[in-house]
Amino acid sequence: MEAIEGFKPARKPRFVKTTRNGCSFDEVAFERARRLEGLKGYVTNIPAAVAPATQIVDSYHELWHVEQSFRMSKSDLRARPI
């Protein structure tokens, strides 16, 4: 609630609405976040007819293998960050 009283943190608080008259608690955003809490979404450009949702999620969970291989290759080459 410090943000509402005028203290300005480095990052904008998630549920504080700023107007010309001051700051207030954004109840709409808070309730939306509560409804979505615990849900996880996956976005892909693969049509549902080509790959079912379970296959998409399974493929996403295997992504760490690709990332680990890339990390090992990058360290072998001593590649610098881009």
Descriptors:
82 residues; mainly alpha; 2 domains; two-stranded antiparallel sheet; RNaseH-like_sf; IS1634 family transposase
Poorly predicted segments: none
Mean pLDDT across all residues, rounded? 82
Number of β-strand runs: 2
Sheet with the most strands, sense and barrel status: 2 strands, antiparallel
Q: Specify the helix fraction band.
A: 40-55%
- Strand order of the main beta sheet, please? 1-2
Gross morphology is flat
Q: DSSP strand (E) fraction?
A: 5-15%
* Radius of gyration computed on alpha carbons: 21 Å
End-to-end separation in angstroms reads 40 Å
Task: Return the structural class.
Answer: mainly alpha
Characterize the quaternary organization of these chains. Answer: single chain
State the helix count: 3
Query: What is the H-and-E element order?
Result: EEHHH
The structural domain count equals: 2
Give me a quick take on this structure.
The protein is mostly helical.
List the helices and strands and how they pair.
Blueprint: E1 16-19, E2 22-25, H1 27-36, H2 53-61, H3 63-77
Antiparallel strand pairs: 1-2
Describe the structure in your own words:
This protein is flat. 0% of the residues are buried. It has two domains: 1-39, no CATH class; 40-82. 41% of the residues lie in helices and 10% in strands. The chain is mainly alpha-helical. InterPro entries: RNaseH-like_sf. This is IS1634 family transposase.
